[in-house]
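Collaborator request, handled under Task 6.
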Amino acid sequence: QVQLVESGGGLVQPGGSLRLSCTASGSIFSFNDMSWYRQAPGKQRDLVARITSTGSTVYAGSMKGRFTISRDNAKNTVYLQMNSLKPEDTAVYYCQYASSRSPYIYWGQGIQVTVSS
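Structure tokens returned to the collaborator:
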């Protein structure tokens, strides 16, 4: 079992920045992918960014250049640095853990990010 705990969300003005953190604990394999997804009310849950255990990254097109995903393997933590935030970034953000050595995908509880004046 893997447990994921997110932190760092909240309210920010347009143009501001936030950094989300997600710490994994439990039966963690060395080779894993960690991702951030987001979901606004009435909309589907979409990928924001993904990072492998070796640091390779992928971003949704609208996030490239504004958001940066990184990880600290010693702390089993993944980060999402969000800059130049826009009202349309408002959503619940979810951390995801996946490994080819596990039959399950694990999700955090979700954390609210609100961008508003």
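The cover message to the collaborator said: "The first strand starts at residue 2 and ends at 7. The chain has a mean pLDDT of 95. Please let us know whether this matches your experimental observations."
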